[in-house]
TrEMBL record:
Catalysed reaction equations from the record: precorrin-2 + NAD(+) = sirohydrochlorin + NADH + 2 H(+); siroheme + 2 H(+) = sirohydrochlorin + Fe(2+); uroporphyrinogen III + 2 S-adenosyl-L-methionine = precorrin-2 + 2 S-adenosyl-L-homocysteine + H(+)
Enzyme Commission numbers on file: 2.1.1.107, 1.3.1.76, 4.99.1.4
Native organism: Neisseria zoodegmatis
Name this polypeptide is given: Siroheme synthase
Alphabetized HAMAP family for the sequence: Siroheme_synth
Record-listed Phosphoserine modification sites: S128
Binding site for NAD(+): H22, V23, A43, A44
GO MF, any single term: sirohydrochlorin ferrochelatase activity
Keyword S-adenosyl-L-methionine annotated: yes
GO biological process: cobalamin biosynthetic process; methylation; siroheme biosynthetic process
Length: 469
């Protein structure tokens, strides 16, 4: 048997509720919310029912179930702890062709009540057909986190504009596209921010300029690799995209979550051609947006941390293309957390510095004196090729050669590997590290011994070599 899903309009319709205990209260609550006239058949009322009775929200029939109570009702819910009574309610309802739900007894139900995600006027119902209510509730919770709270307001605004849109956008497919584009655009960000005026202005501008495509770009941080570290905004953006331009650093697991019919374009950097690649990427972003596409620029980690997100946003701002930024978990946060290395700790590190191992364009030197201070954690991005230089300079400017260091490769991914050692070993460790790799320098690294929780690998052979060196 498979149930036929419906949403019933119970407003001002009589519904009989048999029972007035704890379970019946939950049923009464949702019936009252739906505007039903709730008639309660029970010999006595719980205090909560008594309050409802005083507020005229329910009608108390004064005694337990009688067949005559079924007269004129649309639905009946049997919610007593008396199995025989529940059965007779069901049988009487069946005889009269009235829908009946018996709490927790599937074979005494002609209808069942789903688990509901309520973003009124949007409602999402989940049911297991009575076979596994706990599983249905599990999915309700999972969906609950995915459906933004402001979805209801979006539906409300759409409802108010519906007839105007219908007049302006003639065909069904065009209208569908109009709404899809709108809901995936910054319209939804404005609604989420409670800025209804800006949201309606966006809608109105789109309606007034139907022939001018209104694309936009979302710069999305994909995090360090583990797909579970995507934010909900990131997931929603990649599932709404027409085009996704992604870096080499974005994991396959995350790419698999991109909307199936989106164009996926790799703009991965090739060593030596950074500049050219970046210009080409900038051009593509602008071009796709000008064609009216929903473009996602998907970047490893966070777009604004050594990710050139700032430059790309500048290009978009100059071209007058609407854009949004979705931050991501940067490698320094993800990789250290999964390696069991706290970036700060009251006992040994009061600050953390994120630096790049890449040399500066103008060839000038970083402030080694500051970088070599103790009681701070240094995290080096893109640094493995420069590890020897970096270690030598830090030691030269006063950091102890015995400072604990780690090189975390493929941080947060199933194949994460971590090497630990001393600052003087860093060049060897970096040379052996699979990429991408992050170098972490500071006393906090020693805490990994105690705090290691993620099942990563520690290349034993290489460690032995390092210690022998
Ligand atoms: N925007 C990114 C950084 C891009 S720079 C972010 O916020 O994380 C690229 C460098 O990031 C790599 O050279 C490496 O040092 C580091 N990195 C990125 N992902 C990593 C990972 N999963 N594990 C270790 N290091 C990583």
């Amino acid at each position: 048997m498979s149930h036929y899903p419906i949403f019933a309009d119970l407003n001002r319709r009589p519904v009989l509720l048999v029972g007035a205990g704890h379970v019946a209260e939950r049923k009464a609550e949702s019936l009252i919310q739906a505007g039903a006239q709730v008639r309660v058949a029970a010999a006595a009322l719980s205090p909560r029912f008594e309050t409802w009775r005083q507020q005229n929200r329910i009608e108390w029939l004064g005694i337990s179930f009688q067949t005559a109570f079924l007269d004129g009702v649309f639905l009946v819910i049997a919610a007593t702890d008396d199995a025989a009574l529940n059965r007779s309610v069901f049988e009487a309802a069946e005889a009269r062709g009235i829908f009946c739900n018996t709490v927790d007894t599937l074979d005494l139900c002609s209808f069942i009540v789903p688990a509901v995600i309520d973003r009124s006027p949007i409602k999402i119902a989940v049911s297991s057909g009575g076979t596994a209510p706990v599983l249905a509730r599990y999915w309700r919770q999972a969906i609950e986190t995915l459906v933004p709270l402001h979805t209801g307001t979006m539906a409300e605004i759409a409802g108010e504009w519906r007839s105007r849109v219908k007049k302006a956008v003639r065909t069904m497919p065009e209208r569908r596209r109009f709404w899809e584009n709108l809901f995936a655009s910054r319209f939804s960000t404005f609604v989420a921010q409670g800025n209804r005026a800006a949201a309606e202005a966006e809608l109105s501008a789109r309606l007034a300029n139907l022939d001018t495509p209104r694309g936009e770009v979302v710069l999305v941080g994909a995090g360090p690799g583990d797909a579970g570290l995507l934010t909900i905004h990131a997931l929603q953006a990649i599932q709404a995209a027409d085009v996704v331009l992604y870096d080499a650093l974005v994991s396959d697991e995350i790419l698999a979550m991109v909307r199936k019919d989106a164009d996926k374009i790799s703009v991965g950097k090739r060593a030596g051609a950074h500049h050219v690649q970046q210009e080409a990427t900038n051009r593509l972003l602008v071009q796709y947006a000008q064609e009216g596409k929903r473009v996602v620029r998907l970047k490893g980690g966070d777009p604004f941390v050594f990710g050139r997100g700032g430059e790309e946003a500048q290009v978009l701002a100059e071209a007058g293309i609407p854009y949004r930024i979705v931050p991501g978990i940067t490698a320094a946060l993800g990789a250290t957390a999964y390696a069991g290395i706290p970036l700060t700790h009251r006992d040994c590190a009061q600050s953390a510095l994120f630096i790049t191992g890449h040399s500066r364009h103008d060839g000038s030197e970083p402030d080694w004196r500051t970088l070599a201070l103790s009681h701070q954690t240094l995290v080096v991005y893109m640094g493995t090729l420069k590890a020897a230089d970096i270690a030598a300079k830090l030691i030269e400017y006063g950091r102890s050669a015995d400072t604990p260091v780690a090189v975390v490769s493929n941080g947060t991914l199933a194949h994460q590997s971590v090497q630990t050692g001393r600052l003087k070993d860093l060049p060897h460790m970096a040379a052996h590290a699979p990429r991408p790799a992050l170098m972490v320098i500071g006393e906090v690294v020693a805490l990994r011994e105690e705090l290691r929780w993620f099942a990563d690998s520690e290349p034993a052979l290489e460690m032995a070599q390092i210690h022998a060196a």
